[in-house]
Amino acid sequence: MSLNPRPRPPLSEAALSSPLETSERQPIEATPAAATPSGVALGASRRLLPENWDRYLVRIGALLVAALCWHLASTYGFDFFVRFDNVPGPLVVGAEFLAQASSQQFYLHILHSIQRIAIAYGLAVVIGVVLGVMMGRSRFAEDVILPYIEILRPIPAVAWIPLAILMMPTEQSSIVFITFLGALFPIVINTVHGVEQTPKVLVRAARSLGASNAAILWHVVLPGALPSIVTGLAIGMGVAWFSLLAGEIISGQYGIGYFTWSAYTLVEYPKIIIGMLVIGGLGSLCTLLVRKACAPLLRWQTEGAKS
Hints:
CATH superfamily of the largest domain: MetI-like
Strand order of the largest sheet: 1-2
Distance between the termini: 79 Å
Largest sheet: 2 strands, antiparallel
């Protein structure tokens, strides 16, 4: 048995260096920008601003440019295929809008229109989604319902007015019926499209795992069809306002459509533009509310890249 100790391995250069040298060789981490006072202030200011605030600034700027072009065209009497001789400028319309905003009658018109939209659109959503799911899941249901949809869908809302007045007991119900038809068809068509686009592989996989038809519909078909359904809901809201305007012009006594038409008959041009802008604003607001209400259902969907 040898008494010689086992030879030690040679020390590396890092081990031979002094502790002071080792500490000096370690890189100094940069302080994050958020930790500096300026970085903290910048982060706080960004948190105060809404998301995608720069895009909203661009949109507001585009509207201001359109208002400026409108002002210049009406001021200098632009006349090249489109005439602005008798079109009131934005300042005149704004002054008239402030006068109408202080009138209780103006809000009564808006309230009646919103009430009709709420009733008609609610019915269209329930019936349209149910019919669309039935047509998308059953060939027999599609063969029975689709001919009615394809025949009635091209008929404009104005053409329904005489028949609606004859069929419905009151003017209110006739306007709601016309608005309901306008919102129904986009919802049905988009729902059918979304249900039919559900991958068959997912349905077969769920069925092989023992899922029932109700479970497949609730957990596979409807989630896959939701993007198309939401698109139909948004389009249906816009068409509903268009149909409402047609119904209120002919057979209404209150409503923003009646307000616009009565302004035309009385040759009150600023009120005509006010009615048009209010209809556009309310329609855009209602469409935005529909999209925001449906946004939690589409959290799984990745947002498309936009440059």
